[in-house]
């Protein structure tokens, strides 16, 4: 009577001793039949000792016998009468003499509570003559094919608790021969043909993941830029320069960075005014020291003017510094801009527009968003542009 375990390291064929351990073999075979072991991880691997599996939670405390599992799926009354474990079949003549011996792990009893016994957890020995396990755990089978898989399992890297850093999982179980009739109320639920998520939601290296794989240089650079932009936005939020990290300005606002610290508002306004009417221009400064943070926001009257400024002023020298501009909207993602990086506020493409900072009055009628800073000059210049404010002197 045999079972094939298809693991992430290779196949293992187990031959069961149904004559000497009928109840243990029946429990193991029926758990295999209901796909209980599919995607289970070998959560405890000790070099030259054993590899343990059979716990769906991969914690070492889970698992139950097939009879307890059936009762839990039928009625609460039957579940109360069926214990979690069954009495282990520990025979003196069945020893852990050879590598590849398969045993059911015997759980200790809890004082004043449930008695111990065998559930679903099992282990496979990875060396010969492990006499320490004799008489303590129920040997019931041995590996007849796949000893090379056990050798690979014996060499994996594990943490201080014995859990492999890279998951070793039972991908599928095939029953080659089963002499036992199915217990009553045994329902076989066919699992997905290609399971994608392990039952314990492991955060370790996946069994099909290459830990040494590298991305192309372009993709790695793009990921680094995105992470740097996210960190910068979060820093600006923490110091109070942004109301929140995911804010973005309206489409008629140009974000300019890498400025020379000596560049003033008037300088930028004079340089960028050739592209259209500027509603506001402000170099962002430290609230305490007043020093330039080397980036600014320039609000144009029209979106088209901001587009033109973006294309013309990208990487242009201003006060001996090559500035970098960002414009929100489709222009920065359009292929017509000569392959420049995609736009967005502060280089972020994943930011969502928010109505939270919409201006009141005339600006709300235009449907734009307010600036991320609070400026009196913004309203003054808007009034001048609309003819409501006093003329410039």
From TrEMBL:
It is an enzyme of class 5 (isomerase). The keyword Membrane does not apply. Its EC number is 5.2.1.8. It comes from the Eukaryota. Its main location: nucleus. Residues 6-175 form the PPIase cyclophilin-type domain. Keywords: Isomerase, Nucleus, RNA-binding, Rotamase. GO terms for molecular function: peptidyl-prolyl cis-trans isomerase activity; RNA binding. GO terms for cellular component: nucleus. It catalyses: [protein]-peptidylproline (omega=180) = [protein]-peptidylproline (omega=0). PPIases accelerate the folding of proteins. It catalyzes the cis-trans isomerization of proline imidic peptide bonds in oligopeptides. This is Peptidyl-prolyl cis-trans isomerase.
């Amino acid at each position: 009577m045999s079972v094939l375990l298809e693991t992430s390291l290779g196949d293992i064929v187990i031959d069961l001793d149904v004559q000497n351990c009928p109840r243990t073999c029946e429990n193991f075979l029926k758990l295999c039949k209901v796909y209980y072991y599919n995607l289970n991880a070998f959560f405890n691997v000790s070099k030259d000792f054993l590899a343990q599996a059979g716990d769906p939670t991969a914690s070492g405390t889970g698992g139950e016998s097939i009879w307890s599992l059936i009762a839990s799926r039928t009625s609460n009354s039957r579940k109360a009468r069926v214990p979690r474990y069954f009495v282990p079949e520990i025979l003196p003549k069945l020893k852990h003499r050879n590598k590849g011996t398969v045993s059911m792990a015997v759980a200790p009893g809890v004082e004043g509570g449930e008695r111990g016994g065998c559930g679903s957890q099992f282990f496979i020995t990875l060396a010969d003559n492990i006499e320490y396990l004799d008489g303590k755990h129920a040997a019931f089978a041995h590996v007849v094919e796949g000893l090379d898989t056990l050798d690979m399992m014996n060499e994996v890297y594990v943490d201080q608790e014995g859990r492999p850093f890279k998951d070793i999982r039972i991908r599928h179980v095939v029953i080659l021969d089963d002499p036992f009739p199915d217990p009553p109320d045994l329902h076989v639920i066919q699992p997905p043909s290609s399971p994608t998520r392990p039952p314990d939601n492991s955060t370790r290296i996946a069994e099909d993941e290459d830990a040494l794989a590298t991305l192309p240089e372009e993709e790695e650079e793009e990921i680094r830029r995105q992470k740097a932009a996210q960190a910068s936005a979060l820093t600006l939020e923490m110091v109070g320069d942004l109301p929140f990290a995911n804010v973005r300005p309206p489409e008629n606002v140009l974000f300019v960075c890498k400025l020379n610290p000596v560049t003033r508002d008037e300088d930028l306004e004079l340089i960028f005014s050739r592209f259209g009417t500027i509603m506001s221009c402000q170099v962002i400064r430290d609230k305490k020291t007043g020093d330039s943070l080397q980036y600014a926001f320039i609000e144009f009257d029209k979106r088209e003017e901001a587009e033109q400024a973006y294309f013309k002023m990208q990487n242009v020298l201003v006060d001996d510094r090559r500035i970098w501009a960002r414009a929100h909207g489709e222009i920065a993602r359009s292929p017509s801009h000569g392959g420049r990086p995609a736009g967005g506020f502060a280089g972020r493409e994943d930011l969502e527009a928010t109505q939270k900072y919409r201006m009141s009055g005339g600006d709300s009628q235009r449907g734009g968003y307010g600036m991320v800073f609070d400026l009196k000059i913004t309203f003054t210049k808007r009034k001048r542009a609309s003819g409501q404010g006093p003329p410039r002197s």
